[in-house]
C-alpha cells in the first residue's frame, strides 16, 4: 500500500516533532534509501501485491509445498469427520495408549470395509445388469 500524500497545513502539532528533526540525515540507512532503486522494488512487488481493495493476485505466504499440504488436508478432513461420527471415534472407551491406537486402526479398518462393501455392491449390480442383458427371451 502506498503512503498517503503529505499535505502541509501550516498548523503544528504541539506534541510531535517533525520527522526531519528526529532522523539523522547522515545515517547509513538514510543514505542507502537514497541510493536504492525504489521503482524496481515496486515493480517486483507489484507482481504479488495489488494496490487497492480486494485480494492480492498471489498470496505471498502460499508456497507450492504449503498449497499441496492444504489440498491434502482438505481431502482428508471429510474422511476424519465421517470416521468420528459413524465409527465411534468421538469417544474412546478403551483404557491405555495402545488401546487408543488400536481404536483408531479399527475405525479406519471399519471405514475401509464399508467402502469395500459399497464397491462390491456396485460390482454385483453391474454384473447382474450384464447377465440380464445377455439373456434373451425364448421365442414362443
Protein model, in words:
The chain has 140 residues and is mostly helical. It has a domain at 64-134. Helix content is 58%, strand content 0%. The protein has helices at 19-22, 28-35, 38-45, 64-86, 97-134. The radius of gyration is 33 Å and the shape is elongated. The model has no long low-confidence stretch (mean pLDDT 77).
Radius of gyration: 33 Å
Sketch the major β-sheet: none
Unreliable stretches (pLDDT < 50, length at least 5) are none
SSE succession? HHHHH
Report the average pLDDT across residues.
77
Share of helix among residues?
Answer: 55-70%
Number of strands: 0
Q: Topology of this structure?
A:
Elements: H1 19-22, H2 28-35, H3 38-45, H4 64-86, H5 97-134
Q: How do you describe this structure in short?
A:
The chain has helices at residues 19-22, 28-35, 38-45, 64-86, 97-134. It is an all-alpha fold and 140 residues long. The N and C termini lie far apart (86 Å).
Throw out a few tags for this protein.
mainly alpha, 140 residues, 0% strand
